[in-house]
């Protein structure tokens, strides 16, 4: 039962993770966090801007479901740990293949869950880049999972069908009996008396998963439930007023000062020519307002009301038709990842894609990207570049 829950849950986690990689669009300049991806990028496609909430849902599901599966994974490992150390390790070629897949499966699961949880806590202790390691680790884990499922799924289905789940859930500790002997040697020959019923184990694991959901789901929701997201490190309450919403990295942590964003700040616009625009110049252009979510790879998201200049209008000012214009946005930030990000022609041409100057009717705060930041529907949070100093438009390659 634990294995079947993991199979269903991990399938969703894997698919939403691969969608997140597609949303980063590593084919665009500056977006490739996984150099040498080769065949691993075979499925990449143009990430859409509609529906605007899609990345919010897929990445929220990826992170929250991953956390929810932690108790199930630990219970599954607890149930089979003695067999992981059997000696000799293999008695036949088929068993050797299965044992190798188990090594990659258990090691891969530990690596993926550990690095993923550390990343969403912004606890960067890796001696390597998280993004390629998590991507390559995922493919190794999925290959091992496929082998393991092919070998063990028939036995798992037979085991589930061999007894009535409803009757098992009505059986208390006094009526709990060990499994009958099996040909694979998974059942102990002389088991100790049971200390927990099967329904007790499932209730314990299910309760742990419910606790994980309750402590994390609030990070994808606005309003009072934000305060329940104790597993979210981004502050359940950030400041006051119109700029009271999550911040991944503050201006100070990335080396951005008020001198970088004060009166001397200019937006460099590059396209067919080159132009410098002050914030007053931008405010004099036609402004548009949209309610759009911003969602981060760590799983948090929020919807705010943004006001700014359409990227399509800025592409025209740069002399590039917006329907054929990609753009690279560069930030004034001095340290850290994602000081620049590229957007596709489809993202540039969407009328809701803005160089935002205000949020919720007020000027952006410094930590939220003042004097100007990108906001694009359905884009990963790190592609909504803050403290923009330069927009380089270019024609989309044909």
Q: Enumerate the strands of the largest sheet in spatial order, edge to edge or round the barrel.
A: 2-1-10-5-6
Distance between the termini: 50 Å
The helix tally amounts to: 11
Number of strands: 10
Radius of gyration: 25 Å
Structural class: alpha+beta
What is the mean predicted local confidence, pLDDT?
A: 90
- Percent in strands: 5-15%
Let me know the largest β-sheet.
5 strands, mixed
Instruction: Please give the share of residues in helix.
Output: 25-40%
Low-confidence region ranges: none
Order of helices and strands: HHHHHHHHEEHEEHEEHEEEE
What is the overall silhouette?
elongated
What is the total number of structural domains? 2
Spell out the blueprint of helices and strands.
Layout: H1 2-23, H2 54-68, H3 70-84, H4 93-120, H5 130-161, H6 165-169, H7 198-214, H8 258-261, E1 267-270, E2 274-277, H9 279-284, E3 288-295, E4 301-310, H10 311-317, E5 325-331, E6 340-343, H11 345-349, E7 354-359, E8 362-363, E9 373-375, E10 388-395
Parallel strand pairs: 1-10
Antiparallel strand pairs: 1-2, 3-4, 4-7, 5-6, 5-10, 7-8, 7-9
Helix pairs in contact: 1-2, 1-3, 1-5, 2-7, 3-4, 3-7, 4-5
């Amino acid at each position: 039962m634990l294995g079947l829950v993991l199979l269903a849950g991990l399938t969703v986690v894997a698919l939403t993770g691969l969608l997140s990689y597609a949303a980063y669009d590593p084919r665009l300049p500056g977006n490739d966090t996984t150099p040498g991806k080769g065949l691993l990028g075979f499925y990449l496609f143009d990430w859409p801007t509609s529906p605007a909430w899609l990345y919010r849902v897929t990445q929220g599901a990826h992170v929250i479901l991953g956390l929810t599966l932690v108790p199930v994974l630990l219970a599954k490992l607890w149930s089979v740990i003695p067999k992981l150390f059997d000696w000799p390790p293999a008695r036949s070629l088929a068993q050797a293949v299965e044992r190798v897949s188990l090594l990659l499966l258990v090691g891969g699961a530990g690596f993926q869950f550990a690095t993923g949880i550390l990343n969403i806590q912004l606890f960067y202790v890796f001696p390597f880049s998280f993004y390629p390691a998590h991507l390559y680790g995922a493919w190794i884990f999925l290959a091992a999972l496929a082998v393991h499922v092919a070998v063990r799924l028939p036995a798992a289905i037979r085991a589930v069908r061999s007894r009535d789940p409803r009757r098992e859930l009505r059986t208390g500790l006094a009526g709990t009996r060990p499994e009958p002997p099996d040909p694979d040697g998974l059942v102990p020959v002389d088991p100790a008396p049971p200390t927990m019923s099967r329904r007790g184990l499932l209730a314990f694991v299910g309760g742990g998963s419910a606790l994980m959901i309750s402590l994390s789901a609030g990070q994808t929701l606005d309003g009072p439930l934000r305060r329940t997201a104790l597993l979210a490190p981004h502050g359940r309450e950030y400041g006051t007023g119109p700029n009271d919403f999550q911040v991944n990295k503050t201006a100070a942590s990335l080396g951005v000062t008020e001198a970088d964003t004060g009166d001397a700040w200019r937006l460099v616009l590059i396209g067919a020519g080159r132009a410098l625009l002050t914030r007053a110049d931008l405010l004099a252009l036609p402004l548009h307002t949209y309610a759009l979510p911003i969602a981060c790879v760590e799983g948090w998201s929020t919807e705010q009301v943004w006001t700014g200049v359409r990227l399509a209008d800025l592409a025209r000012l740069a002399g590039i038709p917006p329907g054929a214009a990609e753009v690279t946005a560069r930030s004034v930030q001095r340290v850290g990842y994602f000081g620049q990000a590229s957007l596709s022609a489809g993202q540039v041409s969407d009328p809701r894609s803005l160089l935002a100057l205000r949020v919720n009717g007020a000027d952006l705060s410094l930590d939220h990207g003042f004097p100007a930041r990108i906001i694009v529907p359905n884009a990963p949070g790190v592609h909504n570049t803050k403290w923009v100093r330069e927009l380089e438009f270019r024609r989309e390659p044909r």
